Amino acid sequence: xxxxxxxxxxxxxxxxxxxxxxxxxxxxxxxxxxxxxxxxxxxxxxxxxxxxxxxxxxxxxxxxxxxxxxxxxxxxxxxxxxxxxxxxxxxxxxxxxxxxxxxxxxxxxxxxxxxxxxxxxxxxxxxxxxxxxxxxxxxxxxxxxxxxxxxxxxxxxxxxxxxxxxxxxxxxxxxxxxxxxxxxxxxxxxxxxxxxxxxxxxxxxxxxxxxxxxxxxxxxxxxxxxxxxxxxxxxxxxxxxxxxxxxxxxxxxxxxxxxxxxxxxxxxxxxxxxxxxxxxxxxxxxxxxxxxxxxxxxxxxxxxxxxxxxxxxxxxxxxxxxxxxxxxxxxxxxxxxxxxxxxxxxxxxxxxxxxxxxxxxxxxxxxxxxxxxxxxxxxxxxxxxxxxxxxxxxxxxxxxxxxxxxxxxxxxxxxxxxxxxxxxxxxxxxxxxxxxxxxxxxxxxxxxxxxxxxxxxxxxxxxxxxxxxxxxxxxxxxxxxxxxxxxxxxxxxxxxxxxxxxxxxxxxxxxxxxxxxxxxxxxxxxxxxxxxxxxxxxxxxxxxxxxxxxxxxxxxxxxxxxxxxxxxxxxxxxxxxxxxxxxxxxxxxxxxx
Length: 593
Prior knowledge:
By secondary structure, this protein is an alpha/beta fold. The protein folds into two domains: 212 residues, Rossmann fold (3-Layer(aba) Sandwich), CATH 3.40.50.300; 259 residues, P-loop containing nucleotide triphosphate hydrolases (Rossmann fold). The chain is 41% helix and 11% strand. The chain has 24 helices and 14 strands. Strands 3-4-2-5-6-1-7 form a seven-stranded parallel sheet, with helices on both faces. The protein has a seven-stranded parallel sheet with strand order 10-11-9-12-13-8-14, with helices on both faces. α7 links the parallel β3 and β4. α4 packs parallel to α5 and α8 crosses α10. It is elongated and about 75 Å long.
């Protein structure tokens, strides 16, 4: 009380000013329409995030905005709310239908997510605002029909948008807002020509909002194409105590990846939902078939699957139907600045290889959906752990992958497997080409994370105790042949196409039956080995057998004192937990003394 009496007016005036820079204000303070405030309350948004506090007022003033904010910081609502506010305000005086806003996103999954956010935020003004998405695989006639009513908001990938603009199905004559979400990815996905064509058709005075998780040369390029002197918001948010992502790296051979991933999930050393990133589509099915040998259920996410199936997988994963997603991220092409320099150092021979590489890549991705992307934009909820089974090829891609966990104030964990150079191609049945430069990529990852005060900690497993499971790993891998992978891939695609196309109308009419449509069905390896689905007691560490702990959190290292005996299970949202404490190696002692 004395403190309040003794303070003068100056510090009291400064205190609110300090708080206003933090996401402490309410949505009602931002001057939004009461119907939007009501929808925000229904969605249980407590208070604006930092990017929302900064971007919404600027956008409402009509200024161009370029905002950089981390994944999971609320960027989608930060641009949707001012767009909705402008449309509602305009309709008070002019109710004639025309397209006011075009929202461009790099992937179909993100287009669907943005459309769902618009639907939730217009729950109390749905009659006044019509929004459509052009991400579904439908004919040009259907798209033209959707656009014939001049919807207020169109959500699309750049290629779909330009196709409809060029055919005069989509009119931009009275467009007032254009938004580019995940701006640093839009160019990386090969949309440069489409974006340039769209920019030429924009009327003068269109307000531009660019949202991105990083500020790259691609973002600078887009800023030059679309924006006129935008306000740049480079927002760095520090994690509160007990929040953020704990990062660990394990150096191991190629076959040990499969050994460790089996032990981690079969003994339930990681609790909660996980996303496992792999290098390519074949790798998805190899790992899924491998898991099935041990009775571990998982579902697959890759660019070959129909878009409806991919969206349903994400939706069911967020509801808790699935615990493990195996995702290929082959379209994530965000190179580091060092990468071009390294590729240019190898002389003529390396130059020839570099020239051949893009051709191979085009052949690989030509049959897949280039509008697919999983490591960016998609709102995966309550992910406890991200496992980089195959390390990405750049530090930036790594940052975006681990951004799937530790969101909305929760704790998360990222575990990455790295193949040392001397172990590359040492195990032909399981090696992949992308692991050749794992150690170089890891060095860049550590350097990049250090810039934001993050540490990538090494984890050394006690392989003597893990080796007891090695023969089971070998039995399972022998059953996962190339023929089995190819057949599983074909069978899964055929089944998902059937589910996506033939059953779509039925589930639209009967949404309550959606739970019958599962995506973690069992595939068939070369042979079935029922004994691998059960872990015999003699394989478990001695401590687990004594306590009768069984399958669950198993302390692999022998505790040396009372503090070490306190083992905690890892769950999303818990603070100061060490999810892999059981595998931490004992410190090495110098025997030569």
